[in-house]
Write a structure and sequence with these properties.
The protein is of the alpha+beta class. It is 31% helix and 31% strand. A four-stranded antiparallel sheet has the order 2-3-1-4.
């Protein structure tokens, strides 16, 4: 299943409280459970005024649907072409 990088512009994101982040997570999980197709939220990073997420889905449209139904932005959705890290140099 393709992986997507999602950029969410949320002013003050880095100042969200643990409770607010739990609520966002719970909402996302509820939407994922209600989708009629495979969908995996892998991880998210909160930085400055943005939240960057990595999700697996059958299409970018499904990612946008997840955002709409959850009530959070998906300002940019890009399919991940490759993953690299320190181990890539050893391959």
């Amino acid at each position: 299943m393709p992986k997507y990088l999602i950029e969410r512009n949320i002013p003050g994101a880095a100042k969200l409280t643990p409770e607010q982040l739990r609520e966002i997570s719970a909402t996302s999980n509820e939407v994922v459970a209600g989708l009629d197709r495979p969908y995996n939220w892998i991880t998210s990073y909160v930085a400055g005024d943005k939240i960057y997420c990595v999700h697996e889905a059958d299409s970018a449209e499904t990612v946008y649907r997840h955002a709409r139904e959850g009530g959070f932005p998906a300002d940019l959705v890009t399919e991940i072409a490759s993953e690299i890290g320190p181990q890539t140099a050893r391959a």
